[in-house]
Every structure is written in C-alpha cells, then in structure tokens.
Amino acid sequence: MSETNVAEFLREHPRLLGVLFSATVLLTQVGAVAAEAGKTVSGP
Q1: What's the pTM?
Q2: How confident is the model at residue 17 (pLDDT cuts 50, 70, 90)?
Q3: Would you call 39 helix, strand, or coil by DSSP?
Q4: Burial of 31 (0-12, 13-18, 19+ CB in 10 A)
Q5: What is the separation, in whole angstroms, between the first and last Cα of the chain?
C-alpha cells in the first residue's frame, strides 16, 4: 500500500484514525511503565 492509498483510506475512515492514534498513545504509555518496572535497585 502506498502512502497515498493509506492517507485516502484514513480520510474515508476517520474513526479508524482515532483508534490508531489512541493505540499509539497507549503503547507509548505502556512502554514507559515497562521501562520503569525494569529498573533494578541495589542496596538494602
């Protein structure tokens, strides 16, 4: 699929564009939480 076809498809389906945006934001937040949980603590 070329960029033109993707842009055209998303123009015709604005709800899908919103879903994709929400998924991107959610995955960004999950990545930050996972990175924070992966830290090790040295000491008592």
Answers
A1: 0.64
A2: very high
A3: coil
A4: exposed
A5: 55
